[in-house]
Write a structure and sequence with these properties.
By secondary structure, the protein is an alpha/beta fold. The chain folds into two domains: about 190 residues, Vaccinia Virus protein VP39 (Rossmann fold, 3-Layer(aba) Sandwich), CATH 3.40.50.150; about 100 residues, Putative methyltransferase TM0872, insert domain (DNA polymerase, domain 1). Helices cover about 45% and strands about 15% of the residues. It contains 13 helices and seven strands. Strands 3-2-1-4-5-7-6 form a seven-stranded mixed β-sheet, sandwiched between helices. Strand 2, helix 3 and strand 3 form a beta-alpha-beta unit. It starts with 11 loop residues before the first helix and ends with a strand. S-adenosylmethionine binds next to helix 2 and strand 2.
């Protein structure tokens, strides 16, 4: 168990470069985590600017509250909740004239160690970022979902080629006992795989565990709600920066940004535009930004990270 909320920020230099926070501006960090981005933003905006940092994980908020009182950051607002409701948080704290919004998706190192997400240690299957909500946890998903539902999750959110075999094995074991621990689920995955693939069990388990985490936290649904709201909330010229960690998220961000930059939604076969929609954003990253060789050497967890940014018109 970690007793401080640890997380090494990923693509920090690049995120700050694209957000470009200036003294006196107001910004939102939609995924506070260990506060790596938030602390840098506070430094750039100075005491005349304001920062609203949101997180689903109450431990992240508590850790930041400690830092806030130590450093006397009166201009730092901390909000416990889902970034899918960014509009409500912004309204509640009377936050206006927003120059930048950043979201660093997925989970913190603290959560990886403390929320029954990793199969490296024996923890009760949980995976909820928000421990205060009485929502479903991974144990419920694994023990209550039908085979068809499990297959869909493993395929859609994990792109796991042995989804059917793993789901069937889960149902077979469930017929005898509940699957309660992360390491138990790992063993079920090993058993489900054909013999020649058992030595690659970690790769399959990583995909299945990722799929369960995405389902438990409804990660794609939250992102889908968040993106249009975030763009709406920005002032003209404001920047939206998203760091994602798997292809499903990156695809959603890429398509949303492309749609906002295109404006027109007429079918391509139309000779001229009849919808009258004009572009709402300018893409700042033609290709996604990834971690440098130096960052990867210091923090291998940065490998899948992809940064995309737009500027509101
Ligand atoms: C990768 S960490 C952020 C790390 C942060 N950028 C830093 O530098 O320390 C992702 C954080 O987002 C939070 N999170 C994930 N989904 C969320 C959501 N829908 N709403 C609010 N916070 C969320 C997680 O609880 C986690 O603390």
């Amino acid at each position: 168990m970690m007793d401080t909320y640890e997380h090494t920020p990923v693509l920090l230099h690049e995120v700050i470069g694209f957000l470009d926070p200036q003294p006196g501006q107001n910004l939102v960090d939609a995924t506070l985590g260990g506060g790596g981005y938030s602390r840098q933003i506070l430094r750039h905006i100075g005491p005349a600017g304001k920062l609203l940092s949101i997180d689903l994980d109450l431990d992240a908020i508590k850790f930041a509250e400690d830092q806030k009182s130590k450093n006397k950051n009166q201009n730092w607002i901390l909000a416990h909740g889902n970034f899918a409701q960014i509009d409500k948080h912004v309204k509640r704290y009377d936050f206006a004239d927003i120059s930048g919004i950043v979201a660093d998706l997925g989970l913190s190192s603290y959560e990886l160690e403390n929320r029954g997400i990793s199969f490296q240690s024996r923890e009760p299957l949980d995976m909820r970022f928000d421990q205060t909500q009485n929502v479903k946890d991974a144990r419920l998903v694994v023990n209550d979902y039908t085979a068809a539902e499990l297959i869909k999750i493993f395929e859609n959110y994990g792109e796991e080629p042995y989804s059917k075999q793993i789901a069937r094995k889960i149902l077979e074991i469930r017929g005898k006992r509940q699957i309660y621990y992360t390491t138990e689920l790992y063993q079920v995955i090993v058993e489900a795989l054909p013999k020649p693939l058992k030595h690659k069990a970690d790769d399959h388990a990583r995909r299945v565990f990722q799929a369960l985490r995405i389902e438990v936290n409804q990660e794609l649904q939250s992102l889908e709600e968040f993106l249009p709201k975030a763009l709406d909330l920005l002032s003209p010229g404001g920047r939206l920066v998203i760091v994602s960690f798997h292809s499903l998220e990156d695809r959603m961000v890429k398509q949303f940004f492309a749609g906002m930059a295109r404006g027109c939604i007429c079918p391509s076969e139309f000779p001229q535009c009849v919808c009258g929609k004009s572009p709402r954003a300018k893409i700042l990253t033609k290709k996604p930004i990834t971690a440098s060789v130096e960052e990867l050497a210091a923090n291998p967890r940065a490998k899948p990270a992809k940064l995309r940014a737009v500027q509101k018109i």
